[in-house]
Amino acid sequence: MGDHYVPQYYLKGFSEGLGETIWVYDKKSKRRFSTQVKNIANETAFYSPEVEQYLANMVEGPANAVLGKIHQREWITEGEKELLAEYMAAMIKRVPRGKQLVKQLAPDTAQKLSDKITMELVAIATQDPSKAELVERRRSEIQKILDIGIHGWGAFAPPMLSS
């Protein structure tokens, strides 16, 4: 089982029965079939464990309650609308094609962001030498991301010092 680039909770909104089965149309093979939600829209090692955790806890989790309210045809607050907007923006960026577009459109931005984060990490290590090892791990992760064309993280980066 891989990392879902379309959240399972979202997919279950289109499912049959108990929310486990969904109809799928494969554009490449031009075939349609029924399968379990857990078996579609995922890819092994699509994200690092940290990014998967970040998406689950900081993006999907808060929005799932909002989606539930919408499904029940309940009103949502302005704050919930913001959560939903963030969720939808993340969904656009997190699918394979979205990640590819981000990579094509923003390589300079990614490098600038990397440079800025690296400078901030160095400042943190300078202020608190006990964090030097953590800072070095994060710097290494940033370089790895850039070396693999942002494939491992896409447009999502959890807070760099969350370990």
Could you describe the 3D structure shown?
- With 163 residues, the protein is mainly alpha-helical.
- It folds into 3 domains: 1-45, no CATH class; 47-94, no CATH class; 98-158.
- Helix content is 56%, strand content 10%.
- It contains 6 helices and 4 strands; from the N terminus they run βαβββααααα.
- A two-stranded antiparallel sheet has the order 1-4. Strands 2-3 form a two-stranded antiparallel ribbon.
- Helix 3 (78-94) packs across helix 4 (96-105) and helix 5 packs antiparallel against helix 6 (132-147).
Question: What distinguishing features does this structure have?
Answer:
163 residues; two-stranded antiparallel ribbon; disordered C terminus
What letter string, H or E per element, gives the SSE order?
EHEEEHHHHH
Mean pLDDT: 79
Structural category: mainly alpha
Strand order, main sheet: write it out.
1-4
Strand content: 5-15%
- Tally of DSSP helical segments: 6
Described by the principal axes of the CA atoms, the overall outline is globular
